[in-house]
Design a protein that fits this description.
Pfam families: Ank_2 (PF12796), BTB (PF00651). This protein has 4 domains: about 100 residues, Serine Threonine Protein Phosphatase 5, Tetratricopeptide repeat (Alpha Horseshoe), CATH 1.25.40.20; about 140 residues, Potassium Channel Kv1.1, Chain A, CATH 3.30.710; about 160 residues, Potassium Channel Kv1.1, Chain A, CATH 3.30.710; about 200 residues, no CATH class. With about 650 residues, the protein is α+β, with helices and mostly antiparallel strands. The strands form 4 sheets. The chain has a 4-stranded mixed sheet. It has a 3-stranded mixed sheet with strand order 2-1-3. The chain has a 3-stranded antiparallel sheet with strand order 9-8-10, with no helix packed on it. A hairpin with a 5-residue loop joins strand 11 and strand 12.
Length: about 650
């Protein structure tokens, strides 16, 4: 068995010192930079408190989740130390570093509040902590060799006779020279370099443009004179194409420095693609009457470099007249770098059903297995034609733009109100990563809501999502994360849901999911709700001995769960009339967090009102009784449904 090659302490100290010197010189990027800004301080505070919604919002806004404060605390270390499992999971999925070979990674594991978090951190060790843009860059790199489906639309020829099948949109995004040439001549499908450029130099430049790591540019066994010729040709190409950063990647010998420069280049390419995507696909989208779609003719040689069109119908008829495209305008195709048809033509009528057409590129669409299969098959959409094929997608334009943004840039800013639609569309296109991102948005942004007490004392819950729709989507699409989220969501608010007819129907549906159900079979959703309900009450007070009180009271509890202790009776007698409303009842317009333990009403003497309107000795006792009441209601629900679980 081979011995594990370990680094001795003095070697590690020397490496750390060398890295610090490189960081000080600006040659190496600090992966955990110091951040004393007010925004990052708020982010750390949200991580301390476990505020999932706020953390998700700030991550979406682009905050650096690997920065640290003046005490060397990173968001991951704080979330781990404070015991917020879901938050730790969110940070790891968003790209937080957890390498046990570093001080920060080891500290997060060592300070984990419990084994559940520690095991999660260990499972996300360096082997799983990857660049979130790696799938995106790998796809672009694979375009150089991908034969099926065919996505290239321009051929570059060298004087040596070598030819390269490339992509106009991506070349225009990465090279200012190609952007100028192709924008002014959108009909160009062949390009020849006048100068004699060695094939190896072409290969090196194309590897850089298409985001392949620059491990060995020249290759082994080349004579020195030939190497000089290749490097001179690379320098010529870099100056002509406007990609001077290539030399930084070639000259980076240190592995860590080379990795950081490659990651920087991938992010630069992402920004370039996003900019061109906004200025072509989004800017030049067309709003057309549905009955006039067949009149649209887009030539293959167009200023957006598009090779197909996606159509998304608007869900409702628009009553305003703006944005209707006349029959004389549908044939107007942009032919120059500044042409645009995104502005609506003169109005022709009211109340017509419309759709939106997006000029898109197969090279990015095939990131979705749905489109890759479509363009690789014998379907009409895969065949060459004089004009671009129009492909209808079953979603709204807003949802399609989110999907396209993800396919082009790997970014996904998903509003909660569109999350369910995006979830279904991602499943339709087999985009598992977008599906997981959407589930993450739903389970974080939808995890908090408020209960508003209106006039008359009636509580109205302002839900950010419909939890019943979420659980049915989780079942249909097999998203375990959403199933767990709904179970926890319902357990945290069970007193608000358990008496609703929809909740009974949900439990019945969960029971019916088991085919040939037997008496010994459990109900999965109800089991999960019981688990999180137990966690909600017991874990909060396990150090206060409340668990023993629950067990003791449960053994004496009658089936009805309506008994009253002697202390409560004495309190009722002393108060004179327990039916009278408490002076401490919440007034109109009050707002309380709905995911806190059950709202309790207390008197100056310390008595607390429970869910059934009786009075408990203190808050601890009230939570014990509330727990029993909710369990009783679950048992009663099962009896009504004639279910054993």
């Amino acid at each position: 068995m081979a011995e594990v090659d370990t680094i001795r302490k003095h070697q590690l100290e020397a490496k750390i010192k060398e890295d610090k010197e490189l960081i000080k010189k600006g040659e190496l990027r600090d992966e955990n930079p110091l951040d004393l800004s007010q925004e990052f301080t708020e982010f750390l505070e949200a991580c301390r408190k476990g505020n999932l919604r706020r953390v998700q919002e700030m991550i979406s806004a682009g905050i650096n989740i690997n920065a640290k404060d003046e005490f060397d605390y990173t968001p991951l270390v704080l979330a781990s130390l404070c015991g917020h499992y879901e938050l730790v999971q969110l940070l790891l999925e968003s790209g937080a570093f957890c390498d046990r070979g570093t001080w920060v990674g080891e500290r997060a594991v060592y300070n984990a509040l419990n084994n559940k978090i520690r095991n999660l951190l260990l499972s996300y060790d360096y082997s799983k902590t990857t660049d979130p843009l790696q799938p995106w860059s790998s796809h672009l790199n694979s375009l150089l060799t991908k034969q099926t489906p065919r996505t290239s639309d321009i051929t570059c020829h060298a004087v040596s006779g070598a030819s390269f099948e490339l992509h106009r949109f991506f070349l225009a995004a990465r090279s200012p020279y190609f952007f100028k040439v192709l924008s002014n001549h959108p009909e160009k499908t062949d390009y020849r370099f006048a100068a004699e450029i060695p094939t190896d130099a072409f290969n090196a430049v194309l590897k850089y443009i298409y985001l392949e790591e620059m491990a060995d540019v020249v290759g082994p066994g080349k004579p020195e004179e030939e190497e000089k010729k290749i490097f001179a040709a690379i320098d010529t190409l870099c100056k002509r194409l406007g990609i001077e950063k290539l030399w930084e990647s070639i000259l980076a010998k240190d592995r860590r420095l080379a990795r950081q420069r490659f990651e920087d280049e991938v992010r630069r390419a992402q920004a370039q693609v996003e900019d061109l995507f906004r200025n072509t696909v989004v800017k030049h989208k067309m709003v057309v009457d549905v009955d006039k779609v067949d009149l649209v003719r887009w030539p293959r040689q167009n200023a957006m470099f598009a090779d197909c069109i996606l159509r998304a119908d608007r869900q409702q008829e628009e009553l305003d007249a703006g944005g209707l495209v006349t029959s004389a305008a549908v044939d107007r195709i942009p032919v120059g770098p500044h042409a645009s048809v995104s502005e609506p033509a003169a109005a022709t009528g009211r109340g017509r059903k419309r759709c939106v057409l997006y000029p898109v590129h197969k090279a990015f669409l095939i990131r979705a297995p749905y489109f890759e299969t479509m363009f690789s098959s014998a379907f009409k959409e895969a065949q060459e034609s004089e004009h671009l094929h129009i492909i209808r997608v079953d979603c709204s334009p807003e949802v399609l733009e989110i999907v396209l943004t993800f396919l082009y840039t790997e970014k996904a800013e998903i509003p909660l109100e569109l999350a369910m639609d995006v979830l279904y569309e991602a499943d339709l296109l087999f985009l598992d990563k977008l599906k997981n991102k959407t589930a993450q948005v739903i389970s974080t942004l939808g995890s908090r809501n408020t209960t508003v007490v209106v006039n008359g004392g009636e509580s109205v819950e302002a839900e950010p999502i419909n939890v019943y729709d979420v659980i049915k989507a989780a079942w249909d699409l097999k998203v375990q994360r959403l199933e767990d989220f709904v179970a926890r969501y319902l357990a945290d608010r069970l007193e608000d849901y358990i008496d609703e007819p929809e909740f009974s129907d949900l439990i019945q549906e969960s029971a019916n999911r088991i085919k040939a159900r037997q008496e010994t079979d459990t109900i999965e959703l109800l089991d999960d709700i019981r688990y999180y309900l137990d966690e909600r009450f017991r874990l909060r007070f396990e150090d206060a001995g409340v668990s023993d009180m629950i067990e003791q009271n449960s053994s004496q509890r009658k089936p009805t769960g309506k008994e009253t202790s002697a202390l409560e009776e004495e309190e009722a007698v002393r108060q004179g009339a327990s039916e009278e409303p408490s002076p401490y009842d919440l007034g109109a317009g009050s707002v309380v967090p709905a995911n806190e333990p059950p709202a309790v009403k207390a008197t100056d003497e310390g008595a607390v009102q429970t869910l059934d309107g009786n009075w408990a000795e203190d808050e601890f006792d009230a939570h014990v009784r509330d727990y029993e009441i909710l369990l009783d209601k679950i048992d009663a629900l099962l009896q009504r449904l004639k279910l054993d679980a």
